[in-house]
Automatic annotation (TrEMBL):
Record InterPro entries: MFS, MFS_dom, MFS_trans_sf
Listed GO CC annotations: membrane
Lineage: Eukaryota, Fungi, Dikarya, Ascomycota, Pezizomycotina
Single GO term (MF): transmembrane transporter activity
Membrane-spanning residues: 58-76, 96-112, 124-143, 155-173, 185-207, 219-240, 295-315, 321-343, 355-375, 381-403, 415-435, 447-468
Protein name: Major facilitator superfamily (MFS) profile domain-containing protein
Localization per Swiss-Prot or TrEMBL: Membrane
Length: 492
């Protein structure tokens, strides 16, 4: 069986002459920086085997880390119905909104610096460091005596968690081709959402340690879940793989690494990361497709934070379910969203389309939010949670993938990914502000405010698709160069 020949040393800066739209990496030609032609063949079975190895090593541990990140940032919802409000006087005035909002200040500020640091210190080292830190902070919240301490600790929690989501997206996009990315992002993201929903069931078990679960159980939620996070973080140091150009990757052979780099060169003209400079940062900041995908992702972020933080309260106090059911009933909508998001992502990757799927997800999300907010009976309102959470997760994973697809270079991707998560963090702030304490327990104004942002996504999508398609036509006609590459085309 023929194998991939050793690539020239300078191919990391090559220009690829293969058709960008080909769905297979079996045969391609390239030209290195000295103008020397080369050719490489990637056997499909070898390629599939390598992808399976990457999937098995990368996706489970990143999903685990993101699961506990979601648990640690959103368990304030179940903690509040387990005695946190009374113990810290959190339910007075706007204190709850402040405690939720301060998380996003550091979260928004540290995205780009964190991605730069991850590239400098290595993905395994950096992700282990920040996860250990936020696990310890979560544990410390369990000893809070007042709401001010809680708010300060959550602010630092945001600083450390800031690096996880953009870091994971950046790392995933560094290993896969464009139309493999959304399926992997959906597995990483929605599986974490699903698993984190079971944290409410775990939390119900943890609060039983307290003599009075409804008044003192919140402490055990934070202390034990924080300790678990620290354990997973330490383990992650030995499992996470670094970027394809890192010499720290020992789980693939030299030939397999060469194959990975060859696959990436088909689409990017490079398998190596360039240096993040101010020019690169400015190029990402002024790139409108990044901002378009980021705003769409933000609409999903607004909604998902609403589901994660406020759904237990809506179930308990708004729909009238018992404490036990309020913990348990958050899991089924999350499970449904996993099936929906992964299925839709596979279709989106297969048909190489993002825009039409984005619109469908947003419509479904608005339908679910309207059912929760405006129907009278508990059961139909609960069904709305299934539709709303499924559509929301669809918007998020499609927005993530759309942003990654329309960036060619690795260094620009590190900045663009951080910009997207910064904008999503602003969505978290928005969510904290519109879900006001005085609107509890139904939070109808908050649901309307989130639905309005989803409507913005529906309005933006056809406009974005029009301009992306026009840019591609101009590139085909030779009157425009996209991403400094003659062969690069936007995903629509």
């Amino acid at each position: 069986m023929p194998t991939l020949p050793q690539l020239p040393e300078k191919t990391e800066v090559c220009h690829v002459e293969a058709d960008e739209k080909l769905n297979t990496a079996t045969d391609y030609k390239y030209v290195d920086e000295n103008g020397a032609p080369g050719e490489a063949v990637v056997e499909p079975e070898v390629e599939k085997r390598i992808i399976r190895k990457i999937d098995g090593r990368l996706l489970p541990i990143l999903t685990a880390l993101y699961t506990f990140a979601l648990v640690d940032r959103t368990n304030i919802g179940v903690a509040r119905i387990s005695g946190l409000d009374k113990a810290t006087q959190l339910d007075v005035g706007t204190r709850a909104s402040v405690a939720i909002l301060v998380f996003y200040i550091g979260y928004c500020l540290m995205e780009i610096p964190s991605n730069i640091a991850m590239k400098r210190f290595g993905a395994a080292n950096w992700l282990c460091f920040i996860a250990t830190g936020w696990g310890l902070l979560t544990l410390a919240i369990g000893f809070s005596k007042n709401w001010q301490t809680l708010a300060v600790l959550r602010a630092f929690l945001g600083v450390l968690e800031a690096g996880l989501t953009p870091g994971c997206l950046y790392l995933i996009a560094s290993w896969y081709r464009r139309y493999e990315v959304q399926t992997r992002i959906s597995i990483f993201f929605v599986c974490a959402q699903f698993l984190s929903s079971f944290s409410n069931i775990l939390a119900y078990g943890l609060i039983q340690v307290a003599s009075d679960p409804e008044t003192g159980g919140w402490k055990y939620i934070y202390i034990i879940e924080g300790a678990i996070t620290v354990g997973v973080a330490i383990l992650s140091r030995f499992i996470i793989i670094d970027f394809p150009d890192s010499k720290r990757n020992k789980f693939l052979s030299a030939e397999e690494i060469a194959t990975v780099k060859g696959r990436l060169m088909i689409e990017r003209g490079t398998a190596e990361a360039g240096k993040v400079t101010w020019k690169v940062i400015w190029g990402a900041i002024t790139d409108w497709p990044i901002w378009a995908a980021s705003i769409m992702y933000m609409s999903g972020a607004c909604s998902i934070y609403g589901f994660l933080i406020f759904l237990p309260i809506i179930l308990r106090k708004g729909l009238g379910y018992s404490l036990v059911l309020s913990f348990v009933l958050t899991a089924p909508p999350a499970a449904f969203s996993v099936i929906y998001a992964i299925g839709m992502s596979k279709l989106s990757d297969r048909y190489k389309m993002r825009g039409p799927f984005m619109m469908g997800h947003a419509v479904l999300a608005i339908t679910g939010l309207a059912m929760i907010g405006f129907l009278d009976q508990s059961t139909p309102r609960y069904v709305g949670a299934f539709l709303g959470e499924a559509g929301t997760n669809g918007v998020i994973v499609t927005g993530m993938a759309w942003c990654q697809n329309n960036i060619r270079s690795d260094e620009k991707r590190s900045v663009g990914t951080a910009i997207q998560i910064i904008v999503a963090g602003i969505g978290g702030v928005y969510s904290a502000l519109v879900f006001r304490q005085q609107d509890s327990p139904d939070y109808v104004p908050g649901l309307i405010a989130i639905g309005a942002v989803m409507l913005l996504t529906i309005a933006m999508t056809p406009v974005v698709c029009f301009f992306l398609r026009r840019a591609n036509k101009q590139a085909d006609a030779g009157t425009r160069l996209i991403e400094d590459s003659p062969g690069f085309r936007y995903t629509i």
